[in-house]
Design a protein that fits this description.
With 267 residues, this protein is an alpha+beta fold. It folds into three domains: 46 residues, no CATH class; 95 residues; 104 residues, Sandwich (Immunoglobulin-like), CATH 2.60.40. 48% of the residues lie in helices and 22% in strands. The protein contains five helices and eight strands, in the order αααααββββββββ. An eight-stranded antiparallel beta sheet has the order 5-4-7-8-1-2-3-6, covered by helices on one side. α1 packs across α3. The longest helix has 67 residues. It is elongated, with a radius of gyration of 37 Å. The two termini are 64 Å apart. The protein binds zinc ion. The site of zinc ion has 5 residues, from α3.
């Protein structure tokens, strides 16, 4: 890779679009392989965008406005008669106004428009970069989380404290079977099962029934015919399980079991 830009202001100039030719090409080819300079360039872009945003809007003062209006009125009064009337020597104030009018139009308006355009472009570009960065971060976090879950499941399967409980179909209930792996110390539960789809407006809900205390919800599900349901659930640690059960509940589940037990297994 070619060398870092020697002048710090090159980043700002590049971000402004003010670098040309070899200088522009040099910085462009360099940043593709240099993380430090990529960061510097991103910082420069942010700086330029902020500068543009921070520039206060320019509104003409009352005196300037008045003079402009006077100038416009004077021009309007003069023009219909201009062809026939002999040319009149412009007064000093009018000349000043005329000069100001031209200056206003020729310099301030285009400069303002360029600044506004540059602001919008840089702001848009910055927002796109921010969005890309946020998406990358979210993807990385998600992968990290998945990896963590895989590790935890592996730990749970290996652990001697993990129990596996088979859940059996109850008389007169939809056909199904499932098993639960549970580790009280880790507060982790894994469900694996296949069961007939729930009737309309109903969901299945898995419960951990503790040796002591009320049942704890461990997942609400609506099975698809012929597909295995499988999930991992974190629960408060250290709860001794007496039983695992799947009940039929109103869609979305309930805080405590209300419906019939469909599958039950003793720990
Ligand atoms: Zn560099």
């Amino acid at each position: 890779m070619n060398a870092h830009p020697t002048r710090e202001e090159d980043f700002d100039l590049y971000a402004l679009g003010a670098l040309e030719g070899d200088e522009k090409l040099a910085i462009e080819s360099h940043v593709t392989s240099c993380a430090t300079c990529t960061e510097k360039l991103a910082a420069a872009r942010g700086r330029i965008a902020l500068l543009a945003l921070a520039a206060p809007p320019v509104a003409p003062s009352a005196a300037v406005k008045q003079r402009l209006m006077q100038q416009v009125r004077a021009d309007a009064e003069r023009s219909p008669a201009a062809a026939s009337a002999p040319p009149r020597a412009p007064q000093e104030t009018e000349r000043a106004g005329g000069f100001f009018g031209r200056w206003w139009a020729a310099v301030l308006v285009p400069a303002g428009a360029v600044l506004a355009l540059a602001t919008i472009l840089l702001w848009t570009e910055n927002r796109q970069l921010d969005r890309q960065l946020a998406a990358l971060r979210a993807a990385a976090e998600q992968q990290q989380q998945q990896l963590q879950e895989v590790r935890e499941v592996a730990d749970m399967i290996e652990s001697h404290d993990t129990v596996t409980v088979s859940l059996a179909q109850q008389p007169g209930m939809p056909a199904g079977a499932a098993h639960v792996m549970y580790n009280a110390k880790m507060g982790m539960l894994m469900f694996d099962g296949e069961i007939a789809p729930a009737p309309a407006a109903k969901s299945y809900q898995l419960w951990l029934v503790p040796a002591d205390g009320k049942p704890i919800s461990a997942g609400v599900f609506n099975p698809v015919s012929g597909r295995t349901d499988h999930w991992m659930m974190k629960l408060p640690q250290g709860i001794a399980a007496k039983e695992f059960a799947v009940s039929l509940e109103p869609t979305g589940g309930m805080p405590q079991p209300t419906g019939p037990m469909v599958l039950v297994g003793h720990a």
